[in-house]
User: Fold these one by one.
Assistant:
Number 1:
Amino acid sequence: MVPPNLAAALAVPADCGMTGRRLRVAMADDDADVLVSLRELFTASGRWEVVAAVNDGIDLLRVLDVEAPELVLTDLHMPNGDEQLIERLGHHPSRPLIIALSAATSPSTARRLLELGADLVLRKGIDRVVVAAERLCDERGVTPRS
Amino acid sequence: MAATTLVIAIASVLALRASNDWVDRRRVVLIPASAQVDRLLLALLDQQNGSRGYILSSNPSFLDSYVEGRREERDSSAQLRALMADDAEVIDCLVRLDSMSAVWHDDVVAPQIALVEAGRRDEAIEIVESGVGRESFAAIRAELDELASLLDVRLDDGGTRLDRWVTALGALAIAGVGVAGIATLLVSIALRRGLTVPLERLSREATAVAGGHLDTSITPGGPVEVDAVARSVEHMRRILLSEISASFNKGVVEAEQVERARLAGELHDDPIQALSAAQWRLEASLPTIGEPERRSLEGVVSSLGEVQMRLRDLMFELHPPSLDTDGLAVALEDLLDETFAGTGVSVHLVTDIDDGLPRVLAGLTYRLAAEAIRNARRHAAPRNLTVTAQFDRGVRVTVVDDGEGFDGAPVPLAGHHGTQLGPALAAAAGGWWELSSRSSSAHPDDHGTTVAFWLPLADDI
């Protein structure tokens, strides 16, 4: 559950998508602390613009409709956020790079997520998320869309 | 077999009866007949000697021998006819002999005696010297020899037949012994199939059940009494299994499994998430912090990552999430992948278990299998490891490695809980757990360790 007083913190900034050269990322997790810290982590790197931080899979899909970020990070244990969400993200017209984040991903689950459309599966707290995201973008030749 | 035995028995009886008949005929008929032939010859010789003596000496005392000879001749001839009445050839010979004797008597001997009694002895002697009587008597002797020869033939024929029957009886005896041997063998085989095998099977299976292998079904069959015992033991096994399973489902083991799953969920939802958030916040602040403090905080970030790694391992050890979402087979496959990744060990998972296993049973099965797999990784140094998990009125699992192994009882090692915990947990659940091992030093060509266990399904009966 996201505490009400975090709604403002999780709101998309007014200048989302207006900063030009930075890669844009949308993120989703129903744990408020995780979401805030993840946003801080990407913002602090200087290369990323966080265009959305939501706590529901449906909201994440709406963000894609509007913002078309280059990268999506999503948890798999949140409302409307399971393996089906990965499949829907993979088939979205904007087709961002997709990183699935989980606290407990088994090898079989990771394989399945990759088959469904995820580009990377990372373990929370263990894998270096920002480093892995930037490497993925470099490997795929992804640059800011606007 | 019974028909063959009956035929041999009847043939033996017939052979015995026939041989007895021939023995009786030889004793009662043929031998007395031969004696009568000898008696007949003596009677004829007495007549010849008596008549000659009287003719040559005119002494009437010689006639006694002649008269006695005639009486003996009639008597022996009559007895021969009576004895050999069923033998036409002998009777014919006797008829000829009587006729020739009558001619010899009437035409030769009686006229000579009459001449001597009339005082005409010289005429009688002339007749004797003419040889008429000698020729006639020689003919009688020849016929008598023929008669004796006929009887000898019958005696010899009887002996030959007797020998034949004795031979036949011997053959029948050998055949009887053979048939008896085969019959004994067949009875032995029938007894083994019908009695010994069911008894041995019952003993073996009942011993296994008594030893705690409640997954061993008792096979019915055999004689009525053995079948009844087998069915009773099987009934008892099912009751035991039912009670243990019921106890298991409501008991401590189930509660413990549920608690482990709950703790794993708690670890996933709370501590790991909180630590991740803290770690990322620290990471985010690193660029704004000066050098000495920054290095220190990087160490904290690294430590937080290590703590999360351990918590994640603990969470998987308690109850891997894939066990609930994907089932036992996938969870075991994940465990093998993670445990032996990068080791070069060849791992194989063989299973027919789908994801429909009851949660508690799946959890306990995973726990015992995982313990054996981790122990193989830590202590055995195998080149190959095979895990087999199959439905068998519950779950039967084997974990086989070709590692260093050991002989005798396993040496307790730090963190090596499987050999104590496995049997206890399996027994508490109504199953069993066994470990066998052969050391590479003592068995260089066939070494390694096998852990096998079986856990019952609650509704097994």
Number 2:
Amino acid sequence: MHLLSDLILEGVMNSYEAGSSNIYVDIDEMKEGVSVKISDDGFFTPIDGLFLGGVSTKGSDRGIGLSLIKERDKNASLKREGNMTVLSFASPNDRSLEDRESFLLSLFVRRGDENIYLNWKDGLSHRCSISTADLMREDAIPYNAHTIANFKRAIF
Amino acid sequence: MHKLTKAELEKIRERESEKLKKRDIHGKTVHVVVSMGTSGIKAGAKGILNILSDEIDRNRIEDVILTQSGEIKGVEAPAVEIFSPEMGLVVYGGVTKDDALRIVEEHLIKHEILEDKRVQVEE
């Protein structure tokens, strides 16, 4: 079963595969659960049943990721807002985000030339904002020994 | 709003994938790609990425580019692809945490292929 951190990653992967240049990840941890919003400027091809397993614009044997999110939250939505595609869902807090380094690494290890903007607010109103541009400024996009060490310093 | 056809989307994916494969490979840099598609994530690719990152850091390996990709078709997840000028493309499938440690120790440091984990793919 996918953890919450995995579902967020699924949502981000969906944005990558839509050819997005900018991906905004908003995470709000509350007592009653975690609310997640992933917005991107990628292409949006509206087809019926995007949340059903196996329904995808990416070819055959694809389209599982969004169905896993829908399994977790039957109210999950994927819609176009202006020029952005917005995926929203909520989940009980399974504490998988507590492995902060692993989660952030999976978000910020590069895939292409995309920019990630993370805005993460926990229940104590502690806000963590990290973006690809922030990490670039500190030579901390994790890809080799030097930058991985910088990344670990930057996220704590 | 511009609507893409499936064919157009596929073209974009192929183009981006080629760009990623070619990036920096002309130098002496080794390119390590962890497949983070749905089956990869389910099979623990996040943990594999973490171990590779930690070991690259611990062993002070600088001539490497660690990146991630989507699903690699036909390869048991989690999958790791390594491109290097000397050894070309090597794909490892069904990578466990122990395998990830071996990939760094044997492939990246000693330049030896883990034949027992290698998957033959058509290039």
Number 3:
Amino acid sequence: MEARPTASLLERWHNGETDAFAVLIQRFEEPLLRHARTLLGPHGPIEDVVQETFLRLAQKPPALHPDAHFDSAAGHGALAAWLHRVTRNLCTDEMRSTNRRIHREQEVAPAEAVSGGQSQVDGADTREAVLRGMDQLAPDQREVLVLRLLEGLSYQEIAEITGRKKGTIGWLLSTGLVALSQVLAPMLGGSSSNQLTMGEI
Amino acid sequence: MTAPENHPLLEKLTAVLMDEADAATVEEITQALASDSDLAAIATGLRATITLVQNELGVGATLPRGRVDDLLTSAHALSESRIPAALPDSGVGALMRAAAAVVILSGGVWGALQFAGQDQVLITDEAAQDERIASIARANLMGQLLYRQAHPRQASGQVDASVLGRYQDLAAQERYAIEQEGFLKGLGEVEEEELSESGGPVHVESLVRDRFTAGVPRGGVTVTGDAAGLSGKGWGNGKDEKYGGRGIASAPQTTTSTPVPGAPPGLAGEVFLGSVPAAKSPPVGGGGGGSYFGPSDGVPPSSKAGLLDSSRPSLGRLKKGQPSAPSPNQGPSTPAPVASGLQALGYSVGSTGGRNGVKLGIESKGAVAEKRSQKRQLSALKVVVDMPVDRRNEFGEFDDLLVGHTGSKEVLIDLEIFGDEAQPVRQPIHLPSYEETVNQRFQEARRRCLVNPQEPIENLYQHWWGDNSWELTLADSQATFGADVDTASYGAARNKLNRNQLPGRAGIRTEEFVNYFRPDLPAPTTDALGLSVEMAPSLSSDGNDRWLLRVGVRAKDIQAWERDPLALVLVVDVSGSMKHHDRMGIVKRAVARMLDNLDSRDTLAIVTFSKEATQVLPPTSVSAREVILAAAESFTPGGGTNAALGLQMGYELAAQGVAPGVISRVVLLSDGLANTGETDQAKILESVREHLNAGVHLNTLGVGIEGHNDTFLERLADGGDGLCDFVDDDRAIQRALGERFAGAFIPVADDVKIQVEFNGRQVVRWRQLGYENRAIADASFRDDAVDAGEVGAGHQVTALFEVELDRGLVYDGTPLGTVRVRWKEPKVGGQDNSLRTATERSLPIMAQDVLAHQGSTSAGYRRAAVTAQFAEFLRRSVHVRTDSVPSLLRAAEALLHDRELAQDEDTMELVGLIQKAVSLGLEDAQLSNAVQAATDDLREIEHVCRQLDSLPGHMNTGDRNRLGSARRQAQERLRLAIEEDERGARDAAGWSQSGILLVEGQEAVRRR
């Protein structure tokens, strides 16, 4: 299944292969959920948004560049960019609601309140701690971090999805990373000297 | 140590870690890491962070199984039918249906935008790019042309009402003339006919023929008579005040009636009253019975007559206008003594109670053989007074008028006299021939489509269609206009619709519709105004790919505690009309609502006006709330409307309150000043502007239900840099003086000008929706002496543009355009306002920023799009002629599928109003007449030609030929439409193609 180029999946689904759509969902649900989470927070309607994104894909798929059907990497990238864009727009819509904003602020507040206690976290809670650390970043920093570190998108692709300049992406990423490294400093301590001696970039 | 986030190499370091750096940067960072321990420490921290994030968060969530199943079911249904079948009804079913509906709406437009265009050649040479866009513009215009050729505007088949009306008018006159001839001829013929039917001779019992003229120098009615062949009882001889007319039995003589006050001079004509006995009532000799000797017995053929006919059904054939062939046996009919039957006794022309009329006296004489109790039936009584053509009038026919067996009766017939000069016109009417008329109409119609090369294109468009035109970006790239936050047009239209009437097109201002809704954009925190843009495929279904750009200007919010103190003077209309529809109650509740937003810092004064102006309350601190409310309770309406006096007194009071740091405003509450004369309006406006310069603003509040005319109130508020609002119920009060209070009374920016400049290299054409009367010359944008609108706290100004993009759009990072807003600090009382400096902000319209799928736009955007199209339909705008009301309705109802909008009462109301308008017959803005439609098509082609001429470069021969043939075809269609219209109008009015009136399918033969 993984071998099938993404763009051809879309085409095959068009031609009546319903399984192809399931593969598309599998391939993209994770990154899209993560993307939505960066914008809406852990308790936001992220599943709604991603479901809506896929529904739109089914309803009115994007017109992909003809090459996309032959070059699997380009095809995947173009479709991914489209999906991320739609997800992002839906999230923006969601965030525009005042209620939602207030709701979200209330969600974030307790995380900040307990951040001082992070030195106590043990291994099992690491994931939670990282998530909370992420939540303390500005949403645009968080979004760029997720798209780069977890989805592996290039600066250029992120710029296209978020509508920002490439330079802005670099800046958001570096400041976001620094901020996150400071929040997570207690958990990084052990390994830091180790890596320093390795001296590699 | 430098704080990590401030390290100068941080960004480059990140780029290197992210594998996004070029070789030079990698080299630079590698060296820096070796020498800069701070940077090395940062690098370590970042790497660790990256690893941690990737390890911990890399395993992500998936959609719950149920949702995936739902999705697959929907997708399956979609791939089967391409139309969403019933979606599975699960917990999220409703959400999915909503999403589906929104997506369906977006139609097939999305595919047109290719993020990765096919000709991704970046053209850097500007001239080449201009030429490229010019050729795209040409292609688009040619496309528009070809589209129009393939889809001519549709119109219902109705004939041109004005042409039809004219023909019907002439036909009525002609029929009348024919009828009169027919009557006279017919009288002779009746004898023949009756002869054959009843087997006995028929006698015309009596015929009154009199000539009268009115308007003799003494102003009375002069009746001259030569009561030919008549005899019978006289009805006075002019002394009889009752009729004051001509006594019939008398010998020819002249009688002058009493003066007729209302009768115009120059009235002249003849009256004929005819009576024919019932066929089966044999004439019996009797005193005074006159005889009529048939048409050749000296009745002039051109004279007109009326018929008094007592013999149903024997005269059934003598119907209105029915022509009769001349009787072969015409000659003097047998004079027979008439003793029974009806007789017209006399008549008078006079005027009572403002009604002109003819009064007839009828006498019925029983025959010896008849029973006295028998009633005669006057059927088809018809009286015609002949007057010159332009005054001709016909009087009603009386059916089944019963007259006693013997005795007399009066019939009073209204006579409408109009015109004031007699014209001796008696010519039969001939229309010009069909061919001749078609030719003439065609030439005329074509002339109306000709373009004066001196006239600016946009004037042409305004002149023809009354809407903003499509502008070619290469020819005009800027739209400049003043901010408008008024919403009165929406309120007035809603009011009309709620009373089950479609609002008239003149009162619809698209921008006021769009600006009615509560702000949906985030308020700026530093500047007074903030900008935003959003763009998605347009709802328009014209043949081109169109996008709708929303430009939002949001004013900052000001909390009650931050604002400056207010000195308000209410100028309240207490004229007689305010008595109705609880208008006074609305005013009182409005005052109370206003007080809720005021506090002890503020003062309020009240002036009322009707015929005079009265100071009801001097400037009073709002802490004395009870005093103010008591003053409002004292309003008692009655008398005239002298707004000028009221405003003058209001301004005098306001002038006392002008002080630095105090917002001074006059608020005019009225149910409309429409009846204020033009000169007065100009004077009032002038004084409003003068006082504004002294720092006193003017707000107007339209109060009431019917007859509310906001045009002048709006102009006043414009002049006073204030807001015009409209209140007709408690909800509107709450909105205008509760929610919008800060916006209406606390200004944050003045002379707010907005300019949108489109990039001629990417945007081919654009048009602005609304703001027709807010346009400012492009060059005046930075001219701070040019006045523009004021924007209050919390307001949002929305402007919409439809644009056509270059389809091969290359996202090279240059913006589609730039939005600019420029404003000054609000005017402040007691200060030199000329020194205020202007602030300008701009925002590039970046394609990747704003272009969105229609379904992924913000809720506010979608609502604005629907609202604007609704307004354009109500305006019958030329731009929605190809759109359909049902699709507007679907788009409106789809708004409620949005979770946020579904709970917004304004959106619900909007959808309700659109549904209401549709139920009241809001139709597609098609033209009602095929000639108009064809004219419009030709105009559109001429307009396209003008636009093509304005483009740089040249048209190729093929295009030129196509253009020529399109024009010829459009002209041909216009000619065909005119031909059909002319045929239809002639048929409907009863004219033959050669210009002769058809009577019941045959050409009427008229004696000349």
